[in-house]
Amino acid sequence: MPLIAGLGNPGTEYAGTRHNIGFELIDRVADVLSITLGAGNGPFLVGEGQFKGSAVQLIKPITFMNRSGPALKQALNRFHTPLNHCLICYDDINLEPGRIRIRPRGSHGGHNGLASIVEALQTTDIPRLRIGIGNNFARGRQSDYVLSPFTAKEQKIMDETLDRATEAVLTFIREGVNQAMNKFN
Q1: What region, left, alpha or beta, does residue 157 occupy, with left being phi > 0 and alpha being psi -120 to 50 degrees?
Q2: What is the pTM of this model?
Q3: Which residues are known to be catalytic?
């Protein structure tokens, strides 16, 4: 059963920020699949549903981004999900807004949420979907940038990107990471 995890920060003050694009993607996938997320048996929100005959679970860790690893590890153990059936979705400043990139494994690339996951799981063999948010910030202002909302122009691009990312997630669920990579990278 695939487990799709979106990374972000809990709390209304972080809603709509660049760093919460993983949460936004999970919300979009949940809408498409008519899944409702609620409290899980751990530090995450969870929703379960079906897609084309396959069971799927969506989660949003309710720890802060930099502590996503223990929450994800607990969810994987609770649902007995092998890593190759898990897809981590998160923001990436190294990709321009509008770009997505899917990989079956790789380093954390300086992303603290993914670094927490790599540390907790002791592996880099974790499928991931990176959503570009760009890097239009002054030196030393990265934190302010990722915790700020998109401009109106960027939001239009991100809405289209989230639609494409939703299709990529559905492809991952239905066909696996390699097909998702072939269609969306």
Answers
A1: alpha
A2: 0.96
A3: 19
